[in-house]
Amino acid sequence: MRVVMFGYQTWGHRTLQALLDSEHDVVLVVTHPKSEHAYEKIWNDSVADLAEEHGVPVVIRNRPDDDELFQRLKEADPDIIVANNWRTWIPPRIFGLPRHGTLNVHDSLLPKYAGFSPLIWALINGESEVGVTAHMMNDELDAGDIVRQEAVPVGPADTATDLFHKTVDLIAPVTIGALALIAAGQTEFTEQDRSQASFFHKRSLEDSRIDWTWPAEDLQRLVRAQSEPYPSAYAFHKGKRLEVLAAVVSEGRYGGTPGRIFYREGDGVVVVAGADARTGRNHGLAITRVRTEDGRELGATEYFTSMGGYLTSHP
């Protein structure tokens, strides 16, 4: 098939590479300009560079809603558009233009975790598996019929970075497998159960701020989700920002006020956590590694030279 590809960052790059390696003919690529947004500088393999290396024409847009782009798309005469990690709304006159419509590739197990940063949100929420879904685009974001979907398990120590590497390897088989079904003439696919749908916003630095009223289990997943190269989870100690690089749920149960720096346990320092911590039934968050404002990385027992005081959500 003649394919136009809409995509950005490493997700789009992997999609374009899969298309270039396939029997399909990539006739045009549309991608976003480079961004300074903290999350868009991560996994930022260039779709434009890859396309140009293979002699594929490239159009750069923030939004695909102008008449000049629409004319370029009509001239490209695509059988299908394939999109992955396109960050703005694609209007119906574009997604409905190709003979077979538009296939969107999304890094979640739709209908759950539509929208942005699905791996991070899924890890924080304790999901047992994540994956990649290829679905037909319609008027509602990430809501069209599912053509192909594959899942991978979330391990007990997996970080968001681990899940990225697991799921990015699914892009090629999911995309090319879905295109094979479409090229073979299949038109009926699996309708999403919209009663199970959830939609998540873009993450920002504010979303990495630690709230000590969360249970320790949730905070431990937040730390894993905000693993390098993502902005680390953070709190404040004596008015200065302190990044929490590694932590586990404490073995013991600790009562008191959320955020209290309380007890050395193994290689960690336990901080009281949970809105009902006063009951003494909660586990704490045992922090094992931190990074200071001046960039020093230290073991928690080296940084916290004495117990007492608080880690707070704000200076």
UniProtKB/TrEMBL annotation:
Keywords: Transferase. InterPro entries: Formyl_trans_C, Formyl_transf_N, Formyl_transf_N_sf, Formyl_transferase-like_C_sf. GO terms for cellular component: cytosol. It comes from the Bacteria. CDD domains: FMT_core. PANTHER family: METHIONYL-TRNA FORMYLTRANSFERASE, METHIONYL-TRNA FORMYLTRANSFERASE, MITOCHONDRIAL. This is Methionyl-tRNA formyltransferase.
